[in-house]
Design brief:
The structure holds two protein chains of two kinds. Chain A has 15 helices and no strands. By secondary structure, chain A is mainly alpha-helical. Chain A has one domain: Orthogonal Bundle (MetI-like fold). Classes of the chains: A mainly alpha, B alpha/beta.
């Protein structure tokens, strides 16, 4: 995924174009060439089947066979108050994270696109470097900053802005702060890739035709950048749904999202049927989101090919 | 070129001659040292799984070396034997673990799924453990307690467990474990249930007691997290394992204090996954680990309380107060009841998670 994203950052055409070309219905004359390409990707396809699809199939199978065959586990989606509450928490935190990430990512991407080559390179570095830092390390860094006697609270109290420490951690605020921080590169890069493709002369033309700066942005630039925003939004949302470490560490144990819920079912109280049912549900939801995304924008373009 | 080649050949020859000699010595040495060579060959390696970290070194000194002296071999694996992992192995018929460092909840979840071997009490000596902690499918390997610790910089005097739930007397944040085990018991003790009348647990009453301080509660996941929350002053009081409280007390030079009073004494258990590769050798390893000397070493290194009552007299005086199984400490604690957990653990744990996340 990271390789894909770094490709998003670059605007060069990628070799994936050729493979995509091979996927189009081949003309009789090119059949031979197309077959060759299929043979080339065959090992990868077989590998995926054996080591990815088969195990996932087994996991999904457990969801309809444990503890007894049937759809009882899936019925829990409708009946279990515990699962409802966890799903609502997961959705709430994921949506909040996505919205905040998109707003911040849009600002950063906009600045990136409109800055000089040198500045752009440094800023991109600043966006990408955090990707290399472990999520655990980042959670502990936030702990140092956000806790009651942490840097932020100490500075705010010393400067007289607040009297008693703010509750910035051990609640959903802390979880969202940590998650937004993790998600920002995943928001910035697709939006930036998209904005880079927007012909700046369109904005200039709008200005030339008498639009104010605000109107030119609202009516020309913003609509043109929407595919990038929607793509980034779904990417960030999908990632957020599966978050485990950050909520567990910054939520003070009170923020139970789907990944941790599944972990408890599988590893601790060994209700594998329930755990795999939730995993299957998550997979279906993500599949649906990607399908919707595919209808709105060109997925191949989002993931790096042109 | 030719010269060099010959030289190389010579070196190779020398090495191979040396190797041959060394190999011969290796083959001969055990035969010289032990006369029971035939037996040694048939004894299998026993893979013992614990939770890693400091336990690797401590287990090596306390258990692996003494067993090796008896001619056996324990191989340590620090990856942590969670219930789901053991069950995966057993169900896939590919068991690589022989002995797992588990607890009451391992019994509670895995016993009904028929994933544990019966402990062979013909080999493991039942008289070397407290009778109440020798179960059909698991036997105590050490004792630990869930206790209350407090920050003496913020909590004056010695608080009682009831004070843990008294926000007026001691304002500030508290922490509990993100697991119902022992937390339900401590809630009930604080609410006035006598130590010997805890079971069957009145979970409704325990949740009501928790609710009274819920807005000030945090929940720790790992032992390290419980230490960090107390050490950094994020919590004024906490319920945690005595081993961690002990470390905190030492590293804060007494700023964090704890007491066994009204704690819950729990057994760490050896369990053997069904169809373990080493077979009965696993029970011989467990029997070897019942020797009191190794258990006292583990107490000194990690604070794990010896399971063998005979070890109590070997504990040096300065370690007695940190030993959860010391008669003086046992007298002021409640003891966990495995039967209740086998019936009720998974639903209580789930209810607990639902309660703290609502």
């Amino acid at each position: 995924m990271r390789a894909l994203l770094s490709r998003i950052a670059s605007t060069e055409t990628s070799p994936a174009t050729d493979v995509a070309g091979a996927l189009r219905p081949p003309s009789p004359r090119r059949l031979h060439g197309a077959m060759r390409y299929w043979l080339l990707i065959m090992p990868a396809l077989l590998l995926m089947l054996a080591f990815y699809l088969y195990p996932i199939g087994r996991v999904l199978w457990i969801s309809v066979t444990e503890p007894k065959p049937g759809l009882d586990n899936f019925a829990l989606l409708a009946t279990s108050a515990s699962i409802h509450k966890m799903l609502v928490t997961t959705a709430r935190i994921s949506i909040l994270t996505t919205v905040i990430t998109l707003v911040l990512a849009y600002l950063v991407a906009y600045t990136l696109v409109h800055s000089g080559e040198r500045g752009k390179r440094w800023m991109l570095l600043g966006v990408i470097v955090p990707l290399w830092i472990s999520v655990l390390v980042r959670a502990f860094a936030w702990f140092i900053l956000l806790r009651r006697e942490g840097l932020i609270n100490n500075v705010l109290i010393a400067s007289g802005i607040i009297d008693s420490p703010l509750s910035l951690i051990w609640n959903e605020t802390g979880v969202v702060i940590g998650m937004v921080h993790y998600m920002l590169p995943f928001g910035i890069l697709p939006i930036y890739a998209n904005m880079n493709d927007i012909d700046q002369r369109c904005v200039a033309a709008a200005r030339g035709l008498g639009a104010t700066r605000g109107a030119a942005f609202r009516k020309v630039f913003l609509p043109l950048s929407m595919p990038g925003v929607i793509g980034a939004g779904i990417l960030v949302f999908v990632f957020s749904l599966g978050f485990f470490v950050t909520p567990a560490l910054l939520g003070g144990g009170k923020t139970l999202m789907i990944a941790e819920y599944i972990k408890v079912q599988i590893l601790e109280i060994v209700r594998w049927g329930v755990g795999t049912m939730l995993a299957a549900t998550l997979l279906v939801v993500i599949g649906l989101l990607l399908a919707i995304l595919g209808r709105i924008i060109d997925l191949r373009k989002l993931f790096g090919s042109v | 070129m030719t010269d060099r080649k010959t030289a190389l050949d010579k070196t190779a020859l020398v090495i191979s001659r040396r190797k041959l000699l060394a190999g011969a010595a290796l083959i001969a040495a055990p035969a010289l040292l032990r006369t029971d060579l035939a037996l040694a060959e048939t004894r299998k390696d026993v893979v013992l799984v614990n939770f890693g970290g400091a336990a690797m070194k401590a287990f090596d000194e306390a258990y692996v070396q003494p067993f090796a002296a008896q001619g056996g071999r324990i191989v340590l694996d620090g990856s942590g034997a969670l219930n789901g992992k053991i069950l995966t192995m057993v169900q896939s018929g590919n068991v690589t673990w022989d002995i797992c460092d588990g607890g009451i909840t391992t019994l509670a979840e895995l016993n009904p799924r028929n994933a544990l071997e019966k402990i062979d009490y013909g080999i493991v000596d039942k008289t070397k453990v407290p009778a109440e902690f020798a179960y059909e499918n698991g036997v105590v390997n050490y004792m630990f307690s869930s206790v209350m610790a407090w920050d003496t910089a913020k909590v004056k005097d010695t608080p009682t467990l009831a004070d843990f739930f008294d926000l007026k007397k001691y304002p500030g944040r508290r922490m509990m474990r993100k697991d119902s085990q022992a937390m339900m018991e401590l809630c009930l003790i604080a609410d006035g249930v006598p130590l010997d009348k805890l079971y069957p647990l009145d979970t409704k009453r325990a949740f009501e007691k928790m609710a009274t301080i819920k807005k000030e509660l945090l929940y720790w996941n790992s032992g390290a997290e419980s230490q960090s929350l107390m050490r950094d002053g994020e919590c004024v009081m906490g319920l945690l394992w005595h081993t961690r409280a002990n470390v905190l007390k030492a590293e804060t030079k007494g700023r964090i204090a704890y007491s066994f009073k009204d704690g819950l004494l729990q057994p760490g258990l050896w369990v053997v996954p069904k169809g373990n590769p080493a077979g009965a050798e696993a029970f011989r390893a467990i029997a070897s680990m019942q020797q009191p000397e190794g258990q006292v070493k583990l107490l000194a290194a990690m604070g794990n309380g010896p399971a063998n009552p005979a070890a109590q007299s070997l504990v040096p005086a300065d370690l007695r107060q940190t030993n959860p199984g010391d008669p003086a400490n046992v007298a002021v604690q409640a003891k966990i009841n495995a039967a209740w957990y086998i019936e009720n653990h998974s639903k209580t744990f789930q209810a607990y998670l639902d309660f703290i996340s609502s």
